[in-house]
Amino acid sequence: MPTAASLLAVGFLVTVAPVLPSSLSPIPSAWAETQVASTRASSTLSANDLKTYQTAFRSLDAGRWQQALSRAATATEKLPAKAIQWLHLQSSDSNAGFEEIVRFIRDNPSWPRLDRLKLRAEQQMSDALPDETILIWFRSNPPQTGAGFLLYARALERAGMSDALQRQAVHAWRETDMTSGEEYEFRRKYRTLVPMSDEVYRLDRLIWEGKYTAADRQARRVPDAYRRLGEARIRLARQSGGVDAAIAAVPPDLENDPGLVFERMRWRRRKGFDDGAIELLAWPEMQISHPDKWWDERSILARNLLQSGDAKRAYAIAADHRVPDGAGFAEAEWFAGWVALRFLKDPEKAFPHFRDMYNGVGYPVSRSRAAYWAGRAAEAAGQQQIALQWYTVAARHNTSFYGQVAAMKLPNASLLPPIQDPQITLAERQAFDRSEMTMLIRMLAEIGAEDTVRTFVRHLADTYTSPAHLALTAELASAIGRLDLAVHTSRQAIKTDVVTLAGYPVLPFRDSKLGDLSIVHGLIRQESGFDIGAVSHAGARGLMQLMPATARTVSGWEKIHYRKNDLTANMDYNVRLGSAYLKDLLVKFDGMLPMAFAGYNAGPNRVTQWVQRFGDPRKMDFEGVIDWMEQIPFSETRNYVQRVLENVTVYRQRELQKPVPVTLTAEAG
């Protein structure tokens, strides 16, 4: 294992934890047509078995489970039949019993969706099972539903295990969501086992989790003082009328309840009363409970202050966060450091925030961000050698935006290691190819069971055992034509500093309206992950995630017929319209990529508003543009712009077969 080297200079503690190089070597121009031989999608089923399974999966899709199972049973190759059984056991329409489901779980511990199978097993249990069976199952698999708990409780009761029954009853009532019917049955039999403090806890939890209908029911079961407290919190959260009266009805000894203070603070912020909301942030002891939720509000208020020109208060609010770890901690430390460095011009105050962020995060995107900004703070303080140390650390993550930007700060950036797949031994490749999961994925792809293929490849990527395993999974996904799953695998891999080249697919576009295909590929990778049939919750469709209304408008520009179905069926049609829209944004914003990408994600009118609020990045230097990007109010759009830019840089490096700097502008041709 690498050791950490610590440097101490003028108060700057730098903890440099060497990271295995995650790099990416340029690919030959024919890469899109070249795949590793052992992972080619070859014929794995006989003609008869292929026909049998295609028929079986059609029956399955139509909900005719018995037909699907019977048809699959006639095939010579049994592995896809096992997948059909696995699907059947998960279905709410399945007539499979508890024993059959448990047997499958026991025999296939490495298969996907075991939690779902365990839930189905619980749903298929009844009092007809022997008490010993019920008790053994729930000792290893705690109840997931109210009905499951009631079954467990009756078995404990019959076994005379009163202490265990009370423990389980308290835990279930505190932590398990139940239907109104399950709640009624629980309370009818076991409410005397639950102390009132746990009744109050349940109400508090439900409100924090935003489950207000269940909280309304629970509020009727607690003492009057807590009922009033709960009703006030729910009214505030729902922004219902009568909040002042509801707050006034809360007894004085509960006025400082953290949940109530939080809802009052959030209500004020939502109504535009920021100063009033900030007053309630002055009680730090309130924020021990649910610190991430407090940070979400604190972040909005701090950004509002920064926008209004009050950087000092923005810093104070951010720096006083109480988030101990996780994504909220990383964002809070970064924001406080950034404000101190760029707006308060105080690198000594900024540096510890970036250092602490670096030491508290694990993913390359976050580590490179922290290291880059630690370098910026050290550089601003005149500590050039310390800055170079941090830039070097950041630059190791050379598929991330801040790693790429950090590399531009290094005098020997051209000597950085190339991006390349991890080394794969022949033994690793053979073991992977012969594994049950790999063989099944190939068979399912041949059958055309696309949704099932997705589940198994994602599971393979999410349960990796080595860098080679991840690279082979991405190769497999690419070989069966599932570029979207190669990208998914690549995203999982990069979390552990493993780069998979198959996660940056190249498509043979014919009708792109942009000549720089690195930009088109980079945007597609972020928009749809190369899933041609992707449809978002908002209705955006296809590779470039075009909204139908936008696609209709652009089809008019291009003088071609609008065909909604082709947005998710015809790669060239989608790319022609999407690239034309992106080209229009580039023209509108004078080739400034961050503005064009932000406009593609959030709409061009918002970008115009942000120019008015934060300045015009077209008139800024490189570092000023980075600040502009970080001031975008929507976290989704801030992240989106950086992810697309880093993708574009990777594609450009591969196209030119040499290291390239991050560029923020492009020709619109």
TrEMBL record:
Transmembrane segments: none annotated. It comes from the Bacteria. Keywords: Signal. Residues 517-617 form the Transglycosylase SLT domain. The keyword Signal applies. GO terms for molecular function: hydrolase activity, hydrolyzing O-glycosyl compounds. GO terms for cellular component: periplasmic space. The keyword Plastid does not apply. SUPFAM superfamilies: Bacterial muramidases, Lysozyme-like. Pfam families: SLT. Belongs to the virb1 family. Belongs to the transglycosylase Slt family. This is Lytic transglycosylase domain-containing protein. It comes from Pacificispira spongiicola.
